[in-house]
Amino acid sequence: QIQGMPYGNCLLLSDGPVNNSTGIPFFYVTPKDNTVADLLKNPMASLTLPEADGNFCRKNVIDPEDPRCARLTLMGQMVTVPLEEVEFAKQAMFSRHPVVRKWPRSYEWFFMKMNIEHVWLQSWYGEVSAIAVEE
């Protein structure tokens, strides 16, 4: 409701089925969500992923959101998944998040993905490294 201001949200994502990860984040979304309505007007977005499974945080029993744990930030444009990729997006999302199959169909769900333009890795307090998108 505040024009021009970003709106943060938590969305389920998948980069492919467990045996076929692609590195491309896919989302199952509804236009009834304010985040999606905003993205349809301005597709620029960022996505930050905490180090949930890394050795350092696990061995030292540190919360994955603690600044000592690495985090990856992806930036780019959110786009509707093209028709030829919808089946893969469906397999990606439903294999990792089976509950979405039960979400109400009346919400007009569809798939979006991020076309990644920039990748940043923060591996300690304030230290950020740019990583080539191809990597």
Automatic annotation (TrEMBL):
This is CREG2 protein. It holds the Pfam family CREG_beta-barrel. It is found in: Secreted. It comes from the Eukaryota. Keywords: Glycoprotein, Secreted, Signal. One of its GO terms (cellular component) is extracellular space. Residues 2-135 form the CREG-like beta-barrel domain. InterPro entries: CREG_beta-barrel, Split_barrel_FMN-bd. Belongs to the CREG family. The gene is Creg2.
